[in-house]
Design brief:
Number of strands: 13
Strand order of the largest sheet: 5-12-9-10-7-6-13
Keywords: ATP-binding, Hydrolase, Nucleotide-binding
Mean pLDDT: 89
Shape: elongated
Radius of gyration: 19 Å
Helix content: 10-25%
Protein name: Carboxylase
Strand content: 25-35%
Distance between the termini: 49 Å
InterPro entries: CT_C_D, Cyclophilin-like_dom_sf, PxpB
Number of domains: 2
CATH superfamily of the largest domain: Cyclophilin-like
GO molecular function, one term: hydrolase activity
Order of helices and strands: EEHEEHEHHEEEEEEEE
Structural class: alpha+beta
């Protein structure tokens, strides 16, 4: 099993951190998914949030922090590394400059026609590798290499809710209006985050996302 460090974050959270260079990302994801499931199943945490190299778990009872630090360390090598049973989400997307302000600029920069850009972005299945940045914001791995672009040098202050974006090797959907530095290609009407729901975030680590071009 991959080495890790485990420590408290404030009064209510603990972090399990995997070294950045400890394993390939696929192997690391299996470890993080297994840890999240194990902690979720315990019923002792308000939320368990995986990131690219770590899991942060928020305790219901902060007095149990030391107990869980010891428990995680003792059981680390016994985690069952099974691939998650993902949910497939088909996300309808309206592409184009009316819905994604960077659509035409991205096409020009990558030397693609508008339809080629759409076809590439919808040609693959993406996997939720981790959550972060905003509640319900999922980092979707699997972006075709032909669409890899660095993040914008200057973020914008207003990204509309439901914006479909790309940056580096990821795609993403903005769950709410916010600032952002990703390249915006389109928009969806699917609601990704509902704090009143039993499962507040539609997308969960390990889930599969397929983008589908939608007519206006």
């Amino acid at each position: 099993m991959t080495n890790m460090s485990c420590y408290r974050l404030g009064e209510h959270a603990i972090v399990v951190d995997l070294p950045c260079a400890s394993a390939n990302q696929k192997s690391k994801n299996l470890t993080l998914f297994a840890l999240k499931k194990w902690l979720d199943d315990s019923g002792e945490f308000v939320d368990v949030v995986p990131a690219k190299h770590s899991v942060t778990a928020y305790l219901k009872d902060p007095l149990q922090a030391q107990h869980w630090l010891s428990t995680i360390e003792q059981n680390w090598n016994d985690l069952e590394l099974t691939a998650p049973k993902p949910t497939l989400h088909r996300i309808p997307v309206k592409y184009g400059k009316e819905f994604g302000q960077d659509f035409e600029k991205v096409a020009r920069e990558l030397g693609l026609t508008h339809q080629q850009l759409i076809d590439l972005h919808t040609s693959v299945e993406y996997q939720v590798h981790f959550m972060g940045f905003l509640p319900g914001f999922a980092y979707l791995a699997g972006l075709p290499e032909a669409l890899h672009l660095p993040r914008k040098s200057t973020p914008i202050t207003h990204v509309p809710k439901g914006s479909i974006a790309i940056a580096d090797s990821y795609s993403a959907i903005y769950p709410c209006q916010s600032p952002g530095g990703w390249h915006l290609l389109g928009q969806t009407d699917i609601n990704l985050f509902n704090p009143e729901s039993e499962q507040v975030s539609l997308l969960q680590p390990g889930d599969i996302v397929r983008f589908v071009e939608s007519s206006c």
